[in-house]
Amino acid sequence: MLERALDLLFPPRCICCHASGSALCLRCAPVRAPLRRLVFGIEVRALAPYDGVWRRAVLALKDGRRDVAATLGERLGAALRAEDRHLVGIPTSFSRRIRRGFDGGERLAYLAAESGERATSRSLLFVARDRQRGRSRAERLVARDRFRGAGEMLVGTSVTLVDDVCTTGATLADAARALRARGAIVERAIVVALTDLGRKRGER
Ligand SMILES: [Zn+2]
Fold it and tell me: What's the chain's average pLDDT?
């Protein structure tokens, strides 16, 4: 409610060309067919490659820009398929959540579900410990058990993971593991952007 009122007073502007209306206009960031890659057995769909205006948008999201989150959430919502009924956002660490004021992945899942017709979002993942911190990239690639799954209603439920960026897919795989331990079926993810590394891995 408050956000809507603020939108009326200060309409969002494109982070690229500053046109009024949305944080990412259709001219600067046109809607394209999603990129698709398979990482760790999860079909990852991405709105765009992680470069140019999309990279700027993801960085703005990480900076806590709510207008950017709203636009990216809408774009993800529009890209959902019929089978994306249950969305689960990837939570960030507690310290990042405090810095941003919201949780990127969970916020995106919530907004995508809100803008879609049939999907719902649930916060079913918790950061068990922030093990990524201070680790080298090689260590992060094999990082496991970063998340804990919650909820007793997951058995046999097919969920779609939601996150901002997919790089190696290790985070998605780790989140999937935590939800599968609760009985969920996790075969799909939708993200805003896919990095080169993520694309190359998927293409192998
Ligand atoms: Zn623009």
Answer: 85
Higher model confidence: residue 32 or residue 103? Answer: 32
Q: Per the domain annotation, does 68 fall within a domain?
A: yes
Give residue 197 CA to ligand 1 midpoint distance, Å: 27
Helix spans in the chain (H): 2-9, 52-62, 66-78, 94-100, 104-115, 137-141, 170-180, 196-203
6-59 tens-digit pLDDT: 666 678 899 999 999 999 999 999 999 999 999 999 999 999 999 999 999 999
Number of domains in the chain: 1
Q: What pLDDT digit, counting tens, does each position of 128-144 carry? A: 865 555 566 655 555 57
Provide the residue range defining the domain that includes 174: 31-203
Q: Is residue 86 part of a domain?
A: yes
- The Å distance, Cα 17 to ligand 1 centre, comes to 4
In the reported structure, the alpha carbon of residue 59 is separated from the centroid of ligand 1 by a whole-number distance in angstroms of 16
Question: How many Å lie between the centroid of ligand 1 and the Cα of residue 156?
Answer: 42
The CA 29 to ligand 1 mean position distance, Å, reads 7
Angle at 65 between CA 168 and CA 91, to 5 degrees: 40
Residues, CB within 5 angstroms of ligand 1 (ion): 14, 16-17, 19, 25, 28
